[in-house]
Design a protein that fits this description.
2 helices; 45 strands; nine-stranded antiparallel sheet; 697 residues
């Protein structure tokens, strides 16, 4: 019997002796650990610095530090005791030797955040059911905590944070536990109101629910004397919390700022409780027991999903090195699942298979939560379209599979043979189009005579539409358009250019088209009055009142049009800035145009910095692998740090001190989104990242 009192509190009566069978109606089992032993390949033992406070942090073991909550009882690998043959055991002990902490706890989880660690992450996706059976430590109501929760991964959600707490011990109320769901920008997400940039995100925490538990006779319940089974079911619409098969809480996701639920890591541990110090307990060590963890996928949904694109491309005659002729196939990974690749059906004249797997799960790349295969084609494999299959067999014998289309090229790409406009039924939108040729992966387009190019891969069908149409106007419009093809055998073809004419708009065919919002067509780089400083600019469109600019097509900065001039201008960028992607859209009264994106680059300085001498090539996003290595291993090579606001204005610019340190640049600046850039002694960009400064910083 379940009594819901209000949104923040609930009462439930449970059968403490309930045992759930493995089979769950409406779901398929994809992962199970009964902890007859502790498998180091499935679970990672947390340690300081592994997604928690690290040795030497100001907050480590400091009860007065505002960020010290999770550090007062830090996780120590030795406190994950492994298995007693039935349960996984996690203890809280005293006499800790780490930074003179008085106590330490333990945690094991499905990921490892330490760089280079070979542990293979695994995640839990939406349309799943998670079930965990656990018994609390004896001192759970005297400061010793126990928790099971899901932690969102930034890879999938663009820097946003989310956490789903199945249970957290609420220390001074022995018959209660707490279930939460909170989210926010990276680094945020606590259960309180914080300043968020996105106006659609008005708060960061669904109201915590305190759940009071009694037995079937409505008597007080001791969590340390019984095992309880916590369940969590979720999809893109809602999250449901269960205790011993009774639903105790729901969260409607369509009413929350978090629009989609993304994959989560699982974390289980013991430490301190939410609101009582661990020192209240006078009997250590304390041990939490986890009986099992089970993960199910809702019937009708596959647990195995394709992480890489469904269409990959391979060159069978690589121009530079043998590594150029392969491509990665990645599918989501669960421990205990048997994976295999079924190669395309193709045989060489000598009897060898055309395709082969060169290596599997190479840890030299920053891949996680996946089963990866590097597929290669032997030299001479005929060009064409093939199909590879990845098959997963689960412990219960159930089989899932995904198909991957493999395109094979074996020569330089051909020069396009034609170029023309296609138009919509209203004769209002005119799109540059060419015929898709064999041995091509896609096409690059230019509207400025080949000064800049924009790449798009091939789509289905026989003709290729660039996807950025021109709008017809009251007079005929002439455009010079260039196109060239590319594939993965290196380089691009010779450009093919034509002068194309857009007829004058027939208002009778397209009533109201003249008022449609016109997007920008090109981002220009303009010099300013300051030496070696440039701005980005777009030609103003009739009717536009301003423009929105963005580095990532997610967070936007508005620049209003001035009364005079034909351009809208944005930012201040130094000469020699490495190329990066920029996005812009026009703003009209009551609506905005489509988004236009383009890679922008800047002239070299009049007096350029001396070259580092290693002929290093700068990547398109303004990063350099060699320089990234420098900043990671030798911070003394960093010479200058610059902080820009979202409008491109320089907020601070500082050089490294004699002590090899920077001053923290964020104190006193308003909450908002900023771009932080590090430069080496030679002036080259080492790294650029978006940061968010909250109001409580």
């Amino acid at each position: 019997m379940l009594f819901i009192l209000n949104a923040a509190n609930a009462q439930v009566q449970v059968d403490p002796n309930l045992l759930n069978p493995v089979a769950k109606p409406g779901f398929n089992l994809v992962f199970e650990d009964e902890f007859e032993s502790f498998d180091e390949s499935v679970w990672d033992r947390s340690s300081p610095g592994d997604d928690n406070c690290a040795y030497g942090d100001d907050s480590f073991c400091n009860p007065d530090h505002p960020q010290a909550y999770n550090c007062r009882v830090p996780g120590n690998e030795s406190n994950v005791l492994g298995s007693d043959g039935n349960d996984a055991l996690v203890r809280v002990r005293e006499g800790e030797d780490m930074n003179l902490c008085s106590h330490s706890g333990g945690e094991f989880k499905s990921f490892d955040s330490r760089p280079g660690n070979p542990f293979r992450d695994w995640v839990i996706d939406p349309n799943s059911f998670l079930e965990i059976r656990v018994r609390y430590p004896e001192c759970y109501n005297q400061g010793v905590g126990c928790a099971g929760w899901l932690s969102g991964n930034y890879v999938y959600n663009g820097g946003r944070y989310a956490e789903i707490d199945l249970w957290e011990v609420y220390g001074n109320e022995p018959d209660q536990y707490q279930a939460n769901f909170h989210w926010g920008e990276a680094g945020g997400g606590a259960c309180n109101t914080i300043a968020l940039i996105d106006p659609n995100w008005t708060y960061s925490c669904q109201e915590p629910t305190k759940i009071t538990v009694h037995d079937l006779q409505n008597q007080d319940f001791n969590f340390s004397e019984h095992y309880l089974t916590y369940g969590l079911e979720w999809d893109n619409d809602q999250i449901k919390y269960y205790l011993n098969n009774q639903m105790v809480k729901t969260v409607a996701l369509h009413t929350a700022p978090l629009k989609n639920v993304y994959p989560f890591h699982l974390r289980l541990g013991a430490g301190r409780s939410l609101n009582v110090e661990v020192t209240e307990c006078d009997d250590f060590p304390q041990v939490a027991s986890i009986d099992y963890v089970r993960v199910y996928k809702k019937a009708g949904f596959q647990a195995m999903r394709l992480i890489t694109p469904q269409v990959i491309s391979i060159c069978s005659q690589p121009p530079n090195s043998p590594w150029d002729d392969g491509d990665a196939i990645k599918v989501s990974y669960y421990p205990g699942v048997a994976y295999e690749v079924i190669l395309p059906d193709c045989t060489m004249p000598n009897g060898q298979d055309c395709f082969y797997i060169d290596h599997t799960n190479d840890n030299n790349e920053p891949d996680w939560a996946c089963q990866k295969y590097w597929l290669q084609a032997r030299q001479g494999t005929p060009t064409g379209t093939y199909t590879a299959v990845v098959r997963a067999t689960y412990p219960d014998g159930r089989v899932e599979q995904v198909s991957i289309t493999v395109l094979v090229h074996n020569a330089a790409p051909p020069t396009p043979s034609n170029l023309f406009f296609t138009t919509d039924s209203n004769h209002f939108l005119y799109t540059p189009t060419t015929t898709i040729q064999a041995n091509t992966l896609g096409y690059e387009w230019s509207y400025n005579g080949g000064q800049t190019w924009q790449r798009q891969p091939n789509g289905p069908g026989e003709v290729y539409n660039f996807g950025k149409p021109f709008h017809a106007g009251p007079q005929p419009i002439t455009r010079i358009v260039c196109v060239r093809s590319y594939n993965d055998c290196g380089g691009v073809s010779v450009p093919f250019c034509r002068t194309l004419t857009i007829p004058a708009l027939n208002a009778g065919l397209c009533s109201g088209c003249m008022e449609a919002p016109l997007p920008p067509r090109e981002i220009e780089v303009h010099a300013t009055s300051a030496p070696d400083v440039y701005q980005l600019a777009v030609r103003r469109t009739t009717g536009a009142i301003g423009y929105l600019w963005s580095y990532d097509a997610h967070d936007w900065y508005y620049v209003a049009n001035t009364e005079n001039g034909i351009y809208n201008r944005y930012g201040q960028f130094p000469a020699g800035e490495p190329p990066f992607q920029m996005y812009v859209r026009a703003v009209f009264a009551g609506e905005t145009s489509e988004i236009y994106g383009q890679e922008v680059s800047f002239p070299a300085p009049v007096q350029p910095f001396s070259s580092p001498g290693n002929n290093e090539q700068t990547l398109a996003q303004g990063k350099s692998s060699a320089r990234e290595q420098v900043i990671a291993t030798d911070p003394a090579q960093v010479s200058i740090r610059v902080l820009y606001d979202w409008s491109g204005r320089v907020i601070s610019r500082e050089k490294i001190s004699d002590a090899g340190e920077f001053q923290y640049p964020y104190t006193g600046i308003p909450a908002g989104i900023y771009i932080e850039a590090w430069y080496a002694e030679d002036g080259g960009l080492l790294h650029r990242k978006k940061i968010i400064v909250s109001s409580n910083r």
